[in-house]
Amino acid sequence: MKNSTTMIPLPEETISSPVVLGPPCCSGVPGPETRSRSCVETASRKAGSFWQAGHWPTLFTAFLYFDFSFMAWTLLGPLGAQIGEALHLSAQEKGLMVAVPILSGALLRIILGLAVDRFGAKAAGITAQIVVITGLLCAWLAGLQNYEAALLLGVVLGFAGASFAVALPQAGRWYPPRLQGVVMGLAGAGNIGTVLDALLAPRIAAAYGWRAVFGLMVIPAVLVLLAYAVFSKEAPVTVTRKKLADYFALLKEKDAHWFCFYYTISFGGFVGLASSYVLYFKGEFHLTAVHAGDLAALCTAAGALARPIGGAIADRLGGIRSLFRFYTLAGGALLLAGLGGNLPLVLAALCIASCALGMANGSVFQLLPQRFGKDLGVMTGLVGAGGGVGGFYLASSLGFSKGWTGSYLAGFMIFSALCFSALAGLGLVKNRWRATWGAMAQARI
């Protein structure tokens, strides 16, 4: 496969200058050596400045786009209890309703990623945002008359979940490799939108009805779309277009399957729990939707804020060692949450589980560039899709567990077992990874 690494072109005046040992300000200008050194050092400091290294309006609007998109993607989760009561849905139907957007977003990530390479990130992002706004308007004006309409809205909201394939590449292509960690962290911080959902959506629904939430969401959606359309720009880089065949080609690599599996559990666990918390706390402990939303926001915030911490720990200890710790912690916490009947104990266990899964997300992406550096764009799409599938499974399985057994225990037990199976998988690959590509990696694995 071709290396898809892109290079930011030098300014035209730099390319055309025949003999340039320093920045353009020094080119061809005679003077003392100290003046030349000073000029070079000044330019070096400027090049090292974060604000001058890329295009911060694109980074900021990409963050806004990603933040709102995460809010829209998981919106049915915080509203699931109220919509479920209005439509007289069973526990299984409510679980599937909040899970469908996650699956839709997983599949659409690959499609939107291909569109970004062919038509540009900005065009793909604007189109996806218009689709989401149309869905929100229809849900506000016409309501959700039945279960099928709720599922259809979930499919449409999947376009918001696919924003991962737009915002991160668009922001990242503006910046050099040495700033990619900071840039990806800032752009990806938009997943805090899930916390805003849990805090605001149940309150607005309690005051004005759940249909009003969809209508009010249109306001920030339009504002974000306008800001994104006006201020974001395509990076001046040459992009190697990915093809669908590239994804299938990478799936021949057994390590690709392992990474998809690990992210299916880590990100899938995080987003699946985030979409299910309101239904769980309301159904299991008979809380109001607003109170359940507050607890959901607390748990989700723990996972969202822990992702960069997990990446930092992985940098220090190595990704494999970190994942051993995080999966163990998540599996034990999920088991405790399933067994515990005491609200403070369960709340603490679920906060720990979300935090551990969030840190595991960061650890997976610490390892991924070491193994698939030249194919990172394609692999990001693959593992992102795997994470969405995991989220769909967890959210839907909790609903089916409640509907079939009257308890959420089975759903938590199965996902806890998956966390421990990830430990077994790490035990199988760690020696081979360290002896092969890990031996050449420039970071600890």
Structure in words:
- With 445 residues, the chain is mainly α.
- It has 2 domains: 53-241, Growth Hormone, Chain: A (Up-down Bundle), CATH 1.20.1250; 246-445, MFS general substrate transporter like domains (Growth Hormone, Chain: A).
- 80% of the residues lie in helices and 0% in strands.
- The protein is built from 20 helices and no strands.
- It has helices at residues 12-16, 33-48, 50-53, 56-73, 76-87, 91-119, 121-142, 147-161, 164-172, 180-188, 193-208, 210-231, 244-250, 254-285, 289-317, 319-339, 343-371, 376-405, 409-435, 437-440.
- Helix 5 packs across helix 14 (254-285), helix 11 (193-208) packs across helix 12 (210-231) and helix 16 packs antiparallel against helix 19.
- The longest helix is centred in the middle third of the chain and has 32 residues, at 254-285.
- It is globular, with a radius of gyration of 23 Å.
- The protein starts with 11 loop residues before the first helix and ends in a 5-residue tail after the last helix.
- Residues 1-47 have low confidence and may be disordered.
Strand percentage? under 5%
| Helix and strand composition category | mainly alpha
Give the ordered list of helices and strands.
HHHHHHHHHHHHHHHHHHHH
The name CATH uses for the topology of the largest domain is Growth Hormone, Chain: A
CATH homology-level superfamily of the largest domain: MFS general substrate transporter like domains
